[in-house]
Amino acid sequence: MRVLVVEDEQLLADAVATGLRREAMAVDVVYDGAGALERIEVNDYDVLVLDRDLPVVHGDDVCRRVVELGLPTRVLMLTASGDVSDRVEGLEIGADDYLPKPFAFSELTARVRALGRRITSALPPVLERAGIKLDPNRREVFRDGRQVQLAPKEFAVLEVLMRNEGAVVSAEQLLEKAWDENTDPFTNVVRVTVMTLRRKLGEPPVIVTVPGSGYRI
């Protein structure tokens, strides 16, 4: 899952990004609304964690732009105000969810994951395919009943493959969904991660390489 965090309190923004990355999400960060508009025009995001009271360009205008562009990106709006009228207004602008500050990080993570599930057709919270069971909320993976310990990027790649339900996923798509914008697009990080993931999942191999196209489970 790829997330854009837009928050002008830099310490908070960086802390949220770090926490979400530990949950195997690819996260980009900007500190004002203008930066957010630039990113959503270039990158595909599953979820936008958007502070409402932003400098340069207000968060409301960023949210309106997401709607105008017809993006599938889901918007979780943050604000220091907990008034019901503010929450209603934010939702009417086009936000998909609303979270007042201060918030518990566990709740933020749960809301981001819930919004991410709404990007694609309805899938169960726990994904199962080819003897693999993946629970995004618990960050757990089992292969034929045996628990498999994965690094965050390995988990992210496996989740993308499983959510595509047998369809081929290109290396470029994996790079887009599992890594942030600072990753060199010419690196072999995808191939290396898939190799390590295959080894950890064990025999027989469940990740199939489709020459010239990508990977599938």
UniProtKB/TrEMBL annotation:
Source superkingdom: Bacteria
Location of the DNA-binding region in this protein: 124-217
Boundaries of every Response regulatory domain copy: 2-116
Matching InterPro entries: CheY-like_superfamily, OmpR/PhoB-type_DNA-bd, Sig_transdc_resp-reg_receiver, WalR-like, WH-like_DNA-bd_sf
Keyword line: DNA-binding, Phosphoprotein
OmpR/PhoB-type domain segment(s): 124-217
4-aspartylphosphate, modified sites: D51
Matching PANTHER family: REGULATOR OF RPOS (PTHR48111), TRANSCRIPTIONAL REGULATORY PROTEIN CUTR (PTHR48111:SF36)
Name the record gives this protein: Response regulator transcription factor
Organism of provenance: Streptomyces meridianus
